[in-house]
Amino acid sequence: MPIQSIEGGFLKILTKRDLRKIHEATLDVLENVGVTIYEKEALDLLRGVGANVDNENKIVKIPRYLIEEAIKKSPSSIRLCGRNPNNDIILEGRRVYTAGGADGIYVIDLENGKLRLATLKDLQDLTRLQDSLDNIHAIMGIVNPSDVSPIGVDRLRCCELIKNTEKHILRDAQGKDGVKDQIEIAAVVVGSRDELKKRPIISFVDCTTSPLKHEKINTEVLIEAAKNNIPVVVESDVVAGATAPVTIAGALIVQNAEVLSGILIAQLENPGTPVIYGNMSSIMDMRTANVALGSPELGIIQVITAQLCQEFYEIPFMGCGGISDSKSTDAQASLEKTLTLAQAALAGTNLIHEMAGMLDSLFTVSYEQVVIDDEIMGAIYRILKGTKVTDETLAIDVIADVGPLGSHFLTKDHTRKFLRQEQWIPGILIREKRESWERKGSKSMREMAREKAKKILKEHWPEQLEKDLVFRMEEIVKKALKKK
Amino acid sequence: MQDILEELSKAVLDCDLEKVKNLTGKAISMNIDPLTIIEKGLADGIKKVGELFERGEVFLPDLMMAAEAMKAGISILEPILKSKKKHRAFLGRVIIGTVEGDIHDIGKNIVATMLEANGFEVIDLGVDVSTEKFISKVKELNPDILAMSALLYTTVPKMGEVIKALEKEGLRSYVKVMVGGAPVTSEIAKKMGADAYGENATSAVREAVRLMKEKERY
């Protein structure tokens, strides 16, 4: 069954006038302060269209019309494909989809609950687990495996992800060659590079460095993806108070300047590149000097950025939500995840990434948390769907039929007909009476989640790729590792 | 004399850069020993801010600003110390930098500032520092501690590379190595052969002090 399209976009924080102020201030900063770009091709592109490039410091000051043009050239609808077409998602307008966790270093072991470094097997298992859950729509490299060398691991992760999920995959890459190799790997699966352009089963993520910098490796990723017309996210992760002003309005300007200048680079390289506005901007906790990714402020930035993308830029937006700073699956985790996911979803964030499994400010991944987060997102989707008022849903006939003397509505056709549309059926929430709950072992939601995760890992296998394809994909990985 | 030193300490605590400069000048004109001005005035202020920070009563920007204020005072005193051939008694000399391929420096800068504020001499090599540069600087400046930082998962192995290069050059036993940065953990630090891991700025200072004690023992 294809993935349902559910829309948010009813939560708004700023007026159109305030949004315009942020936009205008961003253009001022780009024109008068500039951004630093540590990548030659990007500098050449910008110099070529008349931006003011300071060759020594690599600072580029960008006339506002260039940014305005780049925004216009960016498509407002981007299809991210799965290797199974049922998993395709279309990022546009107020649609809300999710992408799973990314880049954890530790995992909480599913068997013994102990913290340990993540391995390649965790990457495979966590990917398979996310593949099975309906409220996760795209997949990222959820952990950095500690048992393989980090150099060239981008190709290896790409290969492992494709094997273990039928959903769309968002990829990081170690520079130009990392992108080239991964495009080749994905092309093996879909048949050819041309076919990959039509059905991009992978996309790339370019992260800027705050404040106002485009570092070399990531900019290479942006340019190479654009060259190949593969969807690419330009993601800014400002930390208000540390790498950006402490005020949210000020932080937004730094974020916006980084992303818009990145979008410009992509559109100069290849006009019409499917580029996605990305962020994971938050605040620094000033007592610990750590980034607070479960903070309500992160949610506010999500909402405003979604507004900017919908109401101003008409560019798809990949935000984030569901990250917790808590060290374990506990009350704090539920609070932070539910709040930030709800804010992002209600705002109409097109792709909410880091949505599943992430604890400890992204350092730790928990299997059971992946299942709980899917459940949280299920509840949030129910809220997004709202309700419809029609003659049929008003149900006057049914009310009259049961009437003031009647007992219940349980046996009415109307109830059965609308049940699944009106009610969300939870997977692991506990709604039993105490005694029967006790009889079944007094299991907490966490235990339920653990059992569900184990069951899925035992039973769920995405469609296997043909042996020949896997061989060819792995050859590309091997070749890349040898080069190093 | 006590009054002005107390005032100076308070000016540091208040992060009042101008006042620190003025009071330092005034203390000099009163012929107070520059080392006393540092110890009883500037450093005393930093110590107090540090305590308040630990208790959660002031926050990181206060701490950093106070350190800046202290530095402003010290920069006025340094030429006088030099002319009198007096030396500040540093706890130790630290070379610090972000490794090659990485331009993230906020964590490194916080650590550098906190080390300075706590009595270390800090030489900051900046960002994207190559292994060769680390090695040549260690040879040139003979630091007690080499501190390295990385934010990217992919640049973390560079720290291990520097440690190996130190070994190869026969420098390893002369310098303690401390590492830090978001993806680094004590486990990863140990694996790569570092002597200490700074989880945050306060723990980096604590670890640096511990390393110096360890060094003295030999």
Briefly characterize the structure:
Chain A contains 18 helices and 21 strands.
Question: Care to describe what's here?
Answer:
Chain A has 484 residues and is α/β, with parallel strands linked by helices. Chain A has three domains: 6-12 and 74-385, Trimethylamine methyltransferase-like (TIM Barrel, Alpha-Beta Barrel); 16-70, no CATH class; 391-422, no CATH class. Helix content of chain A is 48%, strand content 15%. Chain A starts with 15 loop residues before the first helix and ends with a helix. Chain B is of the alpha/beta class and 218 residues long. Chain B has two domains: 2-83, Orthogonal Bundle (Methyltransferase, Methionine Synthase (B12-binding Domains), Chain A, domain 1); 92-216, Cobalamin-binding domain (Rossmann fold, 3-Layer(aba) Sandwich). Chain B is 60% helix and 11% strand. Chain B contains nine helices and five strands. In chain B, helix 1 (2-13) runs antiparallel to helix 2, helix 5 packs across helix 9 (201-217) and helix 6 packs across helix 7 (156-168). The model of chain B has no long low-confidence stretch (mean pLDDT 92). At the A-B interface, loops of A face helix 5 of B.
Low-confidence stretches of chain A: none
Shape of chain A: globular
- The level 1 CATH classification of the largest domain in chain B is Alpha Beta
Radius of gyration of chain B: 18 Å
Structural class of chain B: alpha/beta
Strand content of chain B: 5-15%
Radius of gyration of chain A, in Å, reads: 23 Å
Q: According to CATH, what is the class of the largest domain in chain A?
A: Alpha Beta
The quaternary state of the protein chains shown equals heterodimer
Q: Which class best fits the helix and strand makeup of chain A?
A: alpha/beta
The averaged pLDDT of chain B comes out at: 92
Architecture per CATH nomenclature, i.e. the level-2 architecture of the largest domain in chain A: Alpha-Beta Barrel
Question: Number of helix segments of chain B?
Answer: 9
- What's the helical proportion of residues of chain A? 40-55%
Main sheet strand line-up of chain B: 2-1-3-4-5
Strand and helix order of chain B: HHHHEHEHEHEHEH
CATH architectural type of the largest domain in chain B: 3-Layer(aba) Sandwich
- Can you summarize the main beta sheet of chain B? 5 strands, parallel
Alpha-carbon distance between the two ends of chain B: 40 Å
Strand content of chain A: 5-15%
**How many domain regions of chain B?**
2
